[in-house]
Specification:
Strands 1, 2, 3, 4, 5, 6, 7, 10, 11, 12 and 13 form an eleven-stranded mixed sheet that branches. The protein is α/β, with parallel strands linked by helices. The longest helix is centred in the last third of the chain and has 26 residues, at about 275-300. Strand 8 and strand 9 form a beta hairpin. About 45% of the residues lie in helices and about 15% in strands. The chain has helices at about 10-15, 25-30, 35-50, 70-80, 90-100, 105-115, 140-145, 160-170, 205-215, 235-250, 260-270, 275-300; strands at about 5, 20-25, 55-60, 65-70, 85, 100-105, 120, 130, 135, 150-155, 175-180, 200, 220-225. The mean pLDDT is about 95. The protein has twelve helices and 13 strands. Helix 9 packs across helix 12 (about 275-300). The protein has a single domain (about 5-300), classed as Indigoidine synthase domain (Indigoidine synthase fold), CATH 3.40.1790. It is globular, with a radius of gyration of 18 Å. The two termini are about 25 Å apart. Pseudouridine-5'-monophosphate (PSU) binds next to helix 2, helix 6 and helix 11.
Length: about 300
């Protein structure tokens, strides 16, 4: 094990016993939601994972170092620490020098989780290619191309250019699996009009796809895409005009780089009068549940 990774006690024990574990990201905590919603959501995801018999493993940067398995008290500290950095892959070596706390993005979390030996990771929506800015491609995509891990999400965030995001995943050989759906989910909405590569409804099938990739020597992740639960979805015809407005406002305000995604997501919550926040919470807890089912399936095969 790499000595630059530190493990939380509960995670270390669960992994030593080869019990099912599910990684969680922490950019959601530091940059995805306001306090205290960020803490409540992380706890609800952890609860959903435990209900399936798996151990939740929140991953983040603690005093400059990657920590695999933040304790509940550490999650609570990150949730109220407005100075915590948004840490993507390029930042992992840099934050060590500063020695501060940080929330890890999908890219950084997937990378660290895989290094730690974790096979399943639950998040909300991955990053991708930004609308109107095809040069702004999230580091989430190249990391999915080079990191063997199962990422359970509700598709890519629909504030992005979804057709371009799917094309990029195809270019880099990342299989996109629909959980009980043929359609690529659009984060806040269940439908996008875009197809997934295969539809699966048994967690054992995902384990088999993962094991086959490894047997073939492939390095890609598997993107398991789960539609937001019906009761909490914001349908595309409601959400699309709001996205167009939030994206245009960010453009006019000159927001770019690492600030763009958090800024648009926060604006969406206001424009939708909280509906997108409820959808985001609901899909996160649902994704945690599906991820835990997959982690448990590994131990049963
Ligand atoms: N999913 C959410 N909310 C978020 C994110 C994902 O529901 O805030 C974060 C993830 O950490 C993801 C990041 O990796 O947004 C993408 O940011 P960027 O486009 O700057 O790569
Ligand atoms: Mn970006």
């Amino acid at each position: 094990m790499n000595e630059t990774l530190r493990f939380g006690r509960e995670c270390g024990e669960a992994m030593a016993r080869e019990e099912p574990v599910v990684a969680l990201e922490s950019a959601l905590i530091t940059h995805g939601f306001a306090h205290p919603a960020n803490l409540q959501i992380t706890r609800a995801m952890a609860q959903a994972i435990r209900a399936q018999g798996a151990t939740p493993v929140p991953i983040g940067i603690w005093e400059g170092l990657p920590l695999i398995g933040l304790s509940d008290a550490q999650v609570a500290d990150l949730a109220s620490d407005r100075t915590a950095a948004k840490v993507s892959v390029r930042d992992l070596p840099l934050i060590r020098v500063r020695g501060t706390h940080g929330g890890t993005t999908v890219a950084a979390t997937a990378y660290l989780a895989q290094r730690a030996g974790i096979r399943v990771f639950a998040t909300g929506g991955i990053g991708g290619v930004h609308r109107g800015h095809p040069e702004d491609v999230s580091a989430d995509l190249p990391i999915l191309a080079t990191t063997p891990i199962i990422v359970v999400c509700a598709g890519a965030k629909s504030i992005l250019d979804l057709p371009r995001t799917l094309e990029t995943l195809e270019t880099w050989g990342v299989p996109v699996v629909g959980w009980q759906t043929d359609e690529f989910p659009a984060f806040y909405s269940r439908r996008s009009g875009l197809r997934v590569d295969v539809s699966v409804d048994d967690p054992c099938d995902i384990v088999e796809i993962f094991n086959t990739q490894r047997a073939l020597g492939l390095s890609q992740a598997i993107l398991v895409t789960v539609p937001v639960p019906l009761a909490d979805e914001v349908p595309a015809d409601v959400v699309e005009p709001l996205i167009a407005r939030a994206v245009a406002e960010a453009e006019a305000d000159g927001v770019a780089g690492r600030d763009l995604t958090p800024s648009i997501l926060a604006r969406m919550v206001t424009l939708s009068e909280d509906r997108t926040r409820r959808a985001n919470e609901s899909l996160l807890v649902n994704n945690a549940d599906v991820a835990a089912q997959i982690a448990v399936a590994f131990t049963q095969i």
